[in-house]
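Worked problem 6 (solution included).
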Amino acid sequence: MNGGGKEWLESLSTRGIRPGLESITCILDALGSPQKAYRTIHVAGSDGKGSVCCMLESILVSAGYRVGMFTSPHIIAVNESIRINGSDISDEALEKSLLVIKETSERTCGCTNFEALAACAFLAFKEACVDIAIIEVGMGGRLDATNVLEPDVTVINNIGMEHTQYLGNDLGSIAAEKAGIMKPGIPCVTINTGDALKVIESRAVELGCPLTCVDPDDIDVLNCAPDHTLIRYDCKTYRLGLPGSYQGRNAALAIEALLCLKDSAKIKQFITIGLDEAFWPCRMQKLDDLPIILDATHTVKGAEFLSMDIGRIYGKVILVTAMLNDKDMDGVARNLSKIATKVLISSPDSPRAASAEALASHYRKYHDDVALYGTVPEAVEAALDQRGTVLVTGSFRTAEDCLRWLRRKR
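Solution. The predicted structure is:
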């Protein structure tokens, strides 16, 4: 096995996105199906998947379980995508599993970057002897590389228009792809309404899945603070370690998913402490020593909630934003322009980046003060010079660019 695991993983990025289960199944079969060595919870949706996973992880760790968690994309280091009991996988454990996946892939079938990373997570969790793993879908669901599980419960968070070139051009088609993670007789929890819910309900009947539908109106947000959210749900009050009113929806999904487990009686007494201790970076994250709020929002619904919550907690902000080219830039711009005194636009360091001019063309429809900068760090530095609260948002890569610059600066 020549070459490092991380270098090999990075080299696969050029293969792009390849929906389908053939390669991942081939690799896992050759390894003896490591994903069957522990229980799983499978989480899909357009918004809030990572936050739901984080809350599930925190509660289960509090309850004494050994927990694996796979999410994507990472922000700074790929280790972030694979967590064991609340900590990123070590370099040594990551390298060991990646080299096994590399060797297996090269003697069986090729794979993409995401397929390799998912297979690595499944193997690493087996090696770490986890009791249960929380697995976030990468894109869609039906043909996502994570859809090789036999989960204890599936979760489908809010569904919106995204990845239309792969998932379909209407909400019903996208919902059908995400409902593809549902399995015969396995409980499913969702918070969707309207057309998306109809698709999920139809699939639940077809597969005989017990379906729990969380009603957003049953979640009362009592207080939004810079470092937490207070909600009331099902006649109980919870303090969430994650800021943002939308985290109430994510918490309700996490609670209902855990109540579907066979050992829910043991787990539910740890829900309160687990939700309080949950932390997830770049979700309305206020940096300690700078007037910067960092958020990875990149969907219209996410921007709608972010605009409302930022306005409620901080008032008007200086907006620094950069996005990827496959997102609804106009919908995000429409929502975030409402809370911006100024809009500073750049382009993230990514091959999928939208040009600053393309993004600016949308913001100029809704805001009079729009300026362009060559890089995200240049835009952040200019924003800090203007002495106000700065919101940096638009994508995970935008957050990464900002955090890398701050590390160099310090």
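Discussion: The domain at 34-86+124-277 is CATH 3.40.1190.10 (UDP-N-acetylmuramoyl-L-alanine:D-glutamate ligase).
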